[in-house]
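Quick check before the chapter quiz. The format below is the same one you will see on the exam, so make sure you can read both the input and the output lines.
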Amino acid sequence: MFDEQQLRQVSDIFSALGSPTRLKIIELVSETQRPLHIKAVAQVLKKDYAAVYRHIGVLEKCGLVGVYEVGRSRVIYLKNVDLVNECVRTVKKML
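Here is the expected output.
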């Protein structure tokens, strides 16, 4: 079914999505359907910028999101919007 590398990648994705904060970050970016400044995400979540940035680092490491710089700001975007949305829909069906 999975080779060792694929198994590790799938495990990393599920681990990343195991945090309510990271799920909320994915949901925010998905709902807006456009990249968001990390500072704005931190404000919406009412969390410290550094904490949100660490959560985004986990999501970026497993390939769910990308981060790029605009001037002095960092912006987050979903790498594969359709697959992330499909995953969220599937999980909602399980509830």
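If your answer matched, good. The first helix runs from residue 4 to 16.
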